[in-house]
UniProtKB/TrEMBL annotation:
<dbReference type="Pfam" id="PF12831">
    <property type="entry name" value="FAD_oxidored"/>
</dbReference>
<protein>
    <submittedName>
        <fullName>FAD-dependent oxidoreductase</fullName>
    </submittedName>
</protein>
<dbReference type="InterPro" id="IPR036188">
    <property type="entry name" value="FAD/NAD-bd_sf"/>
</dbReference>
<dbReference type="InterPro" id="IPR005288">
    <property type="entry name" value="NadB"/>
</dbReference>
Length: 535
């Protein structure tokens, strides 16, 4: 078996892992970054989820390096795509003119920009990327992780041990936590444990948010109907108790009010893409599902460049609620079923979905696996909203940021803040049968204590596996927050190597904490919010 060593090992190449790597590399450290899927970027790329961002994202509330990623995506379009003159001049270019974010774009563009951000460090020899590799074991000495065993995704016999003084878990599901014996929690905590008003009386560790397998489609001439999925009849008849009708339908609960509402679907509606101003504070934007997460608006490109808009299907009807995919023996079966649900949704759209003109089905809907980079046409990876979460020195709870609890006081202000974020507390239907929980949040901070496991000394979470609860995970799981979590973790590992100290000591020592926060601010990490109110 091969062996290797580095200064900072980052397992998982999603947004948190990439941000962690960049932070450690900027500080002069050697990094090994691993990723299971073909693309770096996680939810932005291999999971095909356009960014969910807050209302102030174009002005403040994200780190400088996340802004560089966003600027790089726009610059890539201006350099390489046949934009119209008006689109090219649009300062805050939204290539998809989608309503979920002011920067809806094709996943492959984000891959190119991320690779460019990492390229100088690869060339300089300080960054090694192991891809596609996944963690399968670990070596632990007391309260320290000494090495992680990684296996090639397609050839499990190809394994490598990587040793490092700091190990960051940036996997989508906190894979290193059980492998290293790091204490963690899953699912819904009890109200007795957290004091959260929205928590149940008893803990529900297997009650987790639905996973989704996204996919991209366009609408062109011809019949592009896929083969009928084997269990299509099951999903066609599937009716969650609280849904207001079959899952495969236009009617579903409004996430914010829980009232049953009907969404529309109009491929290539001919709207004025240049007039789209995505702001979820004013409008969730999901009225017409075609434009909700549209990632290419054909009218922003030269005539004929795109035969159709391209839209990304991450809609309520693809949420898989039949069972969790973490810490269960049948996780693979559930993930396969989630993929079949998504194929069933596409087949329903092509054959049976009610059209505004009274007809049924759009056979011209075409699966765009070339856009998502996968063999079966769906996203390479499932979108897993909820990870295993460390038991941390500090746990972020609903009372810290819920506007229903805090009123006009704003979110809790942490003396050990290492970043900021903003999103509503947005929980999708769960494997325990819960409906949406989508309530206003105040702009919040990221406490260092939530990145520190209570016992393990040198393992740091670098994504959704920090010490949130089931409830607060709902707003700490989004793209810019995950990036900030990873950036803080990577910077912390480098800082500790520079100072010959330990992460827990940084939080405990006011002088060390101030020095670390100063370093973060020098790198463009915002630690506190200006006076803005939540939504």
């Amino acid at each position: 078996m091969r062996e290797s060593s580095t200064e900072v090992l980052i397992v998982g190449g999603g947004l948190g892992g990439v941000a962690a790597a960049l932070a450690a590399l900027r500080a002069g450290r050697k990094v090994v970054l691993t990723e299971e899927y073909d693309w770096l970027g996680g939810q932005l790329t291999s999971q095909a989820v356009p960014p969910d961002e807050h209302t102030w994202v174009e002005r403040f509330g994200v780190t400088a390096s996340y802004r560089a990623l966003r600027d790089g995506i726009r610059d890539y379009y201006r350099r390489h795509y046949p934009l119209t003159e008006a689109a090219r001049a649009w300062k805050e270019l939204n290539p998809g003119a989608g309503h979920v974010s002011p920067l809806c774009h094709e996943p492959r563009v984000a891959v190119a920009v991320i690779e460019a951000m990492l390229a100088p460090y690869r060339g300089g020899g300080r960054l090694t990327v192991l891809q596609p590799y996944r963690p399968v074991g670990a070596e632990v000495d007391g309260d320290r992780v000494t090495a992680v065993r990684l296996a090639h995704r397609d050839d499990p016999g190809d394994e490598i041990w990587v040793a490092a003084p700091y190990v960051l878990d940036a996997t989508e599901t906190g894979e290193l936590l059980p492998l290293t014996g790091t204490e963690y929690v899953t699912g819904f905590e009890s109200q007795a444990d957290t004091g959260e008003p929205s928590a149940p009386s008893a803990a529900q560790p297997m009650n987790m948010q639905a996973v989704s397998v996204c996919f991209a489609i366009d609408h062109v001439d011809g019949d592009h109907t896929i083969d009928r999925p084997e269990r299509y009849d099951f999903w066609r008849a599937y009716r969650p108790e609280f849904w207001g009708g079959p899952l495969l339908g236009w009617r579903s609960p409004n996430p914010r009010t829980l009232e049953i509402s009907e969404r529309s679907f109009t491929p290539n509606p001919g709207d004025d893409a240049l007039r789209v101003r995505a702001d979820q504070r004013r409008n969730p934007g999901d009225g017409n599902l075609w434009t909700f997460r549209r990632i290419a608006a054909r009218d922003l490109f030269a005539p004929g460049a795109y035969a159709s808009d391209i839209t990304l299907v991450n809609w309520p009807m693809i949420d898989y609620m039949e069972g969790p995919v973490i810490d269960v023996p049948d996780a693979a079966e559930h993930l396969a079923a989630a993929r079949e649900l998504s194929r069933s949704v596409l087949y329903w759209l092509q054959t049976e979905a009610p059209r505004p003109d009274g007809g049924t089905g759009w056979p011209g809907l075409r699966l765009r696996g070339d856009v998502t980079g996968s063999a079966d046409g769906l996203a390479q990876a499932p979108y897993v909203r909820e990870s295993r979460r460390i038991l941390g020195e500090y746990t972020i709870v609903e009372q810290d940021l819920s506007m229903a609890v805090r009123g006009d006081k704003g979110a809790a202000r942490y003396p050990d803040s290492v970043g900021v974020g903003m999103y509503r507390i947005d929980l999708h239907p769960s494997t325990g049968g819960d409906n949406y929980l989508d309530v206003p949040s105040s702009p919040f901070e990221l406490p260092l204590g939530a990145l520190l496991p209570r016992r393990v000394r040198n393992l740091l979470p670098a994504g959704k596996n920090l010490a949130t609860t089931h409830i607060t995970n709902g707003c700490y799981r989004l793209h810019p927050v995950e990036w900030n979590i990873g950036e803080a973790a990577g910077a912390l590992a480098a800082f500790c190597l520079d100072r010959s100290t330990a992460p827990h000591a940084v939080r405990a020592d006011p002088a060390l904490l101030a020095a670390f926060q100063e370093r973060l601010e020098e790198q463009g990490v915002e630690l506190h919010w200006p006076d803005v109110s939540g939504y």
